[in-house]
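Issue 218. Parser rejects a valid record. Input:
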Amino acid sequence: MTVAFRMSSLYVPTLKEDPTEAELASHRLLLRAGMIRKAASGIYSFLPLGLRSIAKIERIVREEMDAIGSQEVLLPIVQPAELWTESGRWDLYGPELARLKDRHGREFCLGPTHEEIITALVRSDVRSYRELPLSFYQINMKFRDEIRPRFGLLRGREFIMKDAYSFHTSQESLQEHYDAQAGAYGRICERLGLEYRPVVAESGQIGGKVTTEFMALAEAGEAELVHCTCGFAANVEAAETTVVRIPSITEAVSMEKRATPGLKTIADLAGAFGVSEHDTVKTMAGKTPEGTLVFFCVPGDRELNAVKAAWAVEGVELLDETDFEKYGIPKGSLGPVNTLPGTLVVADVCLKDDVAWAVGANEDGFHLFGALPGRDFEVGQWADLVVAAPGDRCPECGAVLEGARGIEVSQVFQLGTRYSEAMGATFSDENGEEQPFVMGCYGVGVSRSLAAVIEQYNDDAGIQWPVSIAPLEVAILPLMADGEVFEVAESLWKALGEAGVETVIDDRDERAGVKFNDADLIGWPFQVVVGKKGLAEGIVELKVRGSGERATLPVSEAAQKIVSMVESERARFV
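Output the parser choked on:
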């Protein structure tokens, strides 16, 4: 199949200046290279070159999904509210769920994900364990009404996603397919050319307890990671960790109450009394669904992980401003000593051996120094509560964890029976008894992956596409618009196209500098310069965009050598 284009007929509206709205390299370069255009906040149109790269990502995803036996379907974007009410997510999902009514007043939503509708589909047709396991995937648009859409394709409201769902008779069957999906996701990242880490994660609004994110490493990433040389990696919000504690006070002292007027933060307290934040303990308050007050205590130089807090005390929510007034407790002087009757104190395990806590006195303008657990107050529960950080100990091997930032490009979940039980989706087992489907779900951010690749593959001049998802593979740049130079360039262009190499010829009547700048901005992996001086010596010049390497090729051998190089590069991503 011949794939050959002319720049003069391609719609590629490049920009010379950086758009003021673009904060990240991927956003800036996708706009400048004429691959996307903003339609509204967090909503983008994909132009021809951008869509070609999207199609290549989708092809890779389809190949990997088909290889593990997942079957492609296409589910509606507009979903009936009653299905979401059945699952319990209609109210739980919150304002990110875009809701609408039809002309008859019936409620619908724009699907941010499709657990409900695929569960309803399967429950209507699948009756017996003999029909299981089943796995389905689709690639389509999703919509989430993000409160702060930003960073172009990395946090949009409308986005392209591959989502898959599997149905099983047992946890063992689910685990087998979960592992197959995770393996496929790793291969997808590798074929996209991404440097990535599979990390332990938190499931959020999807539900389930077992989940892994695939993070593309990037300084621009919103997610903070910790990882170890042993292979352990986790999102800091989900990572179990061992905090290294070296308190300055090693022997118990008498507890002393001191006036601390106006000192509302740990930094204020440490600065006023000349102590390290590491030697203080901060207390955050929460409440259970039954209204029990919970005080969470963590080292003053660390942050409470709300996810871990909810793991430690089921259903707990941190207090808001009105709650502090309701319970009559001072927000800036909380501590575990002299708490209200019935208050549960939960402390991070790293504090267990500390003998002198500097804490709030539960009285405005006062703190306690030298408070000792077991003598001055009781800890009702010890738990891992802090947000993990570089320098903590790996939970698997004990080595020191390193930090990184990442972009979530995909995630796999074990849902269990979260949706099937809520929605009455069952099958008949070997004994004829009805059982809920055991489910998993698996998502790849297709448009987000496009941006993640650019975050890893760019320089000051533009994009440096890996050949696997480049819009086109080779650009022919004739330095003259007619005569022998153009004839040779066009002949080479045709030869490459006929050989199956995706090729574009820049036949525009533009200066050489404009062609060079656009070629680097767009990021054509291989660029062939045809000029009068080179032809006088019987050569053309080849530039490899990713490495910047340059070589001269005899005109008579140029097509064959370029085909060989392209095929070799393609093979790296298969």
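Fixed in the parser; the record now loads. The chain has a mean pLDDT of 94.
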